[in-house]
Every structure is written in C-alpha cells, then in structure tokens.
Amino acid sequence: MNYYTLLSLVLTLVQLCPCTPSKQKQSTKNTNQSFTAVRRVKRGWVWEPLFATEEQTPTQPLYVGQLKSDLDKQDGNLQYILTGEGAGSIFVIDEYSGKIHVIQKLDREKKSFYTLRAQAINRNTHLPVEPESEFIIKVRDINDHEPQFLDGPYVATIPEMSPEGTSVTQVTATDGDDPSYGNSARLLYSLIQGQPYFSVEPKTGVIRMSSQMDRETKDQYLVIIQAKDMVGQAGAFSATATVTINLSDINDNAPKFQQRLYYMSISEEAPVGTTIGRLMAEDSDIGENAAMNYFIEGDSTDVFDIITDNETQEGIILLKKRVDYESKRRYNVRAKVVNRYIDERFLEEGPFEDTTIVKINVQDVDEPPVFTLENYVMEIAEGAVSGSLVGVVTARDPDNDDSPVRYSIVHGMYLKRLFSINEHNGTIITTKPLDREIAAWHNITVTATETRNPEKISEANVYIQVLDVNDHAPEFPKYYETFVCENAFSGQLIQNISAVDQDDSAEGHHFFFSLAQEATNNSHFTVKDNQDNTAGIFTAKSGFSRQEQLSFYLPILILDNGTPPLTSTNTLTITVCDCDIEVNIFFCRYGAFMYSIGLSTEALVAVLACVLILLVFILAIVAIRQQQQKSLFSEKMEEFRENIVRYDDEGGGEEDTEAFDISALRTRTVMRTHRPRKNMTTEIHSLCRQSLQVGPDSAVFRQFILEKLEEANTDPSAPPYDSLQMYAFEGTGSLAGSLSSLGSNMSDVDQNYEYLMDWGPQFKQLASMYVSHRSVRD
After folding, report:
1. What is the CA radius of gyration of the chain?
2. Between 681-691 and 699-713, two packed helices, what is the crossing angle to 10 degrees?
3. pLDDT-derived band of residue 321, with 50, 70 and 90 as boundaries?
4. Which residue ranges traverse the bilayer (predicted)?
5. What's the start-to-end Cα distance of the chain, in Å?
6. Residue 747: strand, helix, or coil
7. 336-362 in b/e burial notation, b at 16+ Cβ within 10 A?
8. Are 335 and 355 in contact (CB under 8 A)?
C-alpha cells in the first residue's frame, strides 16, 4: 500500500495591471488588497483553498481549487478562462464554476511550480469583468525517491589503538525529494554491521571508534551504514553503503627473541669478518615500526660484532678478532635488540627491546706454528767473519700436541748465500762477510714447519741491519780539473776541494786536509783546511812557465774522524795556462791540448784552411756529375716517348686493341738495328726442363739467368716481344712441367682455339687472331 502526502497547490495571486483605466484606478485604491481563500472583496477575485494528491497516473481529473469573481451572480453570464503553463494540458478549468482540475501526474523533481493567468469575461459582451491576474501553483512534494550513496563503497584508514570517539570517516546520502517541505528528504543514519567497534552519528553520518582495536588482532573491518528518509518513520525509503576500515600499524609492540639461548661455533682458524651465525627477533608490527637494531653488550665486543640485515631484520654475528682454542674455548655473548623507531606514546608500556645469550664454542684445528714475533730486527757488524751469529727466531706449535718445528730461509738463493739458519733451533748465522756499502739492510723470510704435518707452515720477516765499520778512507768526490795562470801571484786561490766517505758516521763526517809529507818542503802550492769538510788550494809563489813545467802533481792527505781514523792520499793535477790572472776553462783546455801535440795556433789555422778548400772541391765535383746524369736521362726519355704507351685498363675485350697498334706484336720476324737476338727457344726449353732437376743455386741456372740479363741490357732498341716470368721450383722429381711461356711456340701447335669463338663478342678479336694464325700455319 502506497502512502502519499496530500499536497496543496498553493496559489499565490499576483494582481496584474487592469485592462481599463477604471480598473487601474480601483486597483490603486486597493493596493493593500490580497486574495485568499477566505476573504472576499468588492469587484475582485475570490480564492478558495486548492489541494491535490500526487499519484502515479490520475484515473480521473483531480480537483485542485476554484476561482470565483465576486461579480459572479451564479446566472451563467461569466466565463472563466485559464491560460499559461500547463493550461489545458495539465490544468483545466470549468468555465462556469471556475473549478480547477489536474489531469496529469505532477512530478516536483521535474517541475516544482507553474505560472498561470486567470480571466473572467462576460459571455454576452465578451468583455472582461475582472482584470487578468497571474498566479503560481507550487507543487508540494511527496516521498517518491529513495536515498542514494553516490560516493560508495567507502574505504577509510585509521591508526590502531585510536581512542574512543575518534572520527574515522563520514558517509553522505542524497534524496531527490524536496528538503524544504515535510520529512521526505530528512535522512537518518544507522549502523547495521560494525558493532561494537564503531558507531555512526544519526544526522551527520560520521563514523567514530567505539573502542580501541589492535591491528595485530584484526587489521580490517567491514561496516554497513543505512540511510532512511522520513526520519526513519514507517513507510520510509532506505539505502545502505559499505565502509571498509583498515587499521594502520603503530609501534606498540617490542621485538622479542625467538629463543632465550643460542648455541654457535667458530673455528679458531677462521679469518676476521667470518659470519658466525644469525639471530632473529620477532616484532608483530610491520614496516618501519618493525625495524630493529642489534647490539652486543659486555666484554665480548672486542672479539665479536653484530650487524643488522635490513632486508630480513636479522642480526648477523661476525668475528671481529681471531680466536684461539688454546687460550679460550667458549664465549658467552649477550645480544640485545632495540626498535629503531619508538612511539613515545607507548613508552610507559615498557622498553622496546629484548636480550638473549649466545654461547659460542671455539673449534680446535691443527694450527701452523706461531712465531714469538711477527717481525724480527737484528744487527751485525760489516766484515764479520763467516759463521758469525746474527740472531735467533723462535716458533712453537700452539696445539696441545706441541709438534716439533723445522726452520728454513726462503726468497732467493742470493740471501741463502749470505745467511743460513739452524733448522732445529732457528739460529741465523752469516755464510760470508757482509759489506754495508753494498747493502745496509737485508730482508729475509723465515718459515716454520710442523714436522708431523708439513702442510702447516707459518712465516716471519727478519730485517738484518749491517752496522758500519770504518773500513773506507775518504777520497775526492770527483776529478778536479785545475789550472793556474802563468802570471798568478803568490797566495792566489786556484781550487776548492772536498771529500766523500762511503762509511756511515753516527756523529757525521769530518775531514781534515793537508799536504802529504813528501810535498811539504818543495811544493809550489799550499793547502788550507776550511774546517767544514772543504779545503782551498793556494799558490805558494808568483809566476809559472809552461816551458819550464806544464803540470804539477800535488799529493793531498785526507783524514776522517772514524774509529780508527783512516787517511788517504789523493793527487791533484794542476796545469799551467797561458793566461794573465783569471782562468778561462775553455781557453786553458784548448791551450793544453795544442801544447801537448806540439802545434802552434798558426799551424792549426793553416791545417783547417786546407781542409776547407778540399771540401769545397769535392762538393763541386759532385754537383757537376749530378747535372750530367740529369741531362742524359732527359735525352733517353725523349727517345722512348713515342714508343711507350701506358694505360690502366682492366681488360675490356676488343676495346683493348684500340689503345695502341698491336700489329707489331703479331709480327713473327722483327728487324733489329743493333744485332739480332739469338734463337734461344730450344735452349730455353731445355734449360727450363733441366731447372726441374736443379735448384736456384745451381751453376747452370745462374748461367742461364745471367745470359738473358746481359742480352736484354745490351739491346735497348728491342721492344718487349717476350716476357721472362719467374716461378718457384717445385723440387726435384716434380711431375709438373714448366709453367714458362717462353717455349709455348713449340707446344701449342696441336691446340685447337676454336672454342674461343664461343666466349662472346668481347673475345671475338682474340679468337680471330688465334684461329687465323693456326690456319696460316696449317
């Protein structure tokens, strides 16, 4: 059964301008006059209440209301006329009584009001008795539309453990009915599914939390909301919408180790960085709320380390320092896990961390021997006799069985020639005296090998320093080229000297310079020690003569400060130079050289002039010869220019014959002006056959080649009728014949060249040459 609300068609009368002046005047006098259903005025309209019921399809006209003029005497003289929107099609009027009926269904959602005009005329005169008036009929709504959730279904997310009353989301439904009239569009929201976790505000549709919820228990809820119009009264329409509510994670759970105690093991020979094992702590949270860091506490931090695998959130225990079974066989490691990101709202619930114990056992292995030191530094004086003690290295087997150790020296035979080691006790001795000046340090490698397991070997570096002994006397650092001018005065400095010593002095070198004893009394020069490891050479007299003595040899004694001190005598050669006072090194060298060979300057200039003249004469002869060769070459080129034709065609068949006249090549007999060639066909054929039996070094072969070469060189006027081709020998006894074309005139007599006619037009000329030539010979 459908229930409809009775809708009144509210007719609002709007007085229009009167049709006549008298009416306008009367209207002006009654400006405050209104037309209602209960009020009557003089010469005016009378309106009654108008009501209509909105139905699906009216089966008969529905009465709406009545229009009536106060001039209507009920005698039928007045006629009521209705015009405007819907007049005649939707609304009809009884022209005698003024009653208005609706004949079609009214739908407020399509059109909410209609504007009509009413008029009353005299039937006899057809003149209006009332001015035309306009009124509006508003359609009152009935509840004929259901609520709709246009944005559904809904999805919302809210953090877990949110307090009661927290707003989750809001749902909104719409109703097509008129919200300004009645309760048709007044909606009421209710919760069909979702108690007791959620609630909804009836008027606004806001969904709120009714209790705290844990995501780890359930992370998604499905809520169904219903919207009813008519404020939920009986006969109201309703609609539902689903709301999926997801709980987002917060860090409200601490990580927990799966075990209170873990057991792991590591070999004592494992290198640093070896992975020992993995720890796994569980955290009910997800994402970054489950991120954690692992730590090691206590005294084990120097031996072990732990890092976090960010992908698996596992703690990886690593070896930080080598372990030794013989020193310590078991470690108790305390590991801790802590959340990386902590929510301060839940700090009161306890620390977000956990601890566990990891027992790590060290596994015993057969280890190589261990030296007492990784690097040994030893000293020995240079020059020590063979067999002198350098030092002792010691290694032992760290295992419980304490296997004996055997020592040896590796890395080069050179070091083995200098040192040896006792394989039982590790004593290192020299095998020959050492020289510090050759090598101040020696680096050797000593190995220790278990006698019971030779595969277990360890090494140690031994650095041997050769201590210096003062066994080298000081000497000049270089050869001094010293000159003294003939006009030098007494006490003039002519040379500064220094000294070097190959030995090493802990206090620093200090040298003392003096003249040797044998030159002290009769020397023309003196030595002055500068006390800074240098000395000056001074003249002891004035004036020197090259004719009397060209060079002086000055013995200088150099003493070092070593223990014991060593001395050496070094000879300084002083050459007399033809100069005034200042020495010019280049001039003095030149003068000394000329004086030594016995030539004067004038003689040397004469020799150089002769050499220059001879050189000019040779160049002139060479230039003349080159000019003559150029002239001869020009004449020869002019002579052969008309006979030599050069072309680069690839072979175009008959077109090649047009490049030059080849008739000369077809002539069998050629006249030669110089001398005719000897007919060597038979000889060549014989020699070619013989060449199969001889090599290129054969005398017969060489003779043949020389004869042909001589003949070609002595006959420059002969055109190139034949060509001499060189082929490699195939060896003695080859079944292949000669490949030379020199003897082809004897072997092609039986050949038939008629097949050349089938090669096409490009070989036509060639075919005609060979076929005609064969015919002539036949």
Report:
1. 67
2. 150
3. very high
4. 603-624
5. 137
6. helix
7. bbbbbeebeeeeeeeebbbebebebeb
8. yes
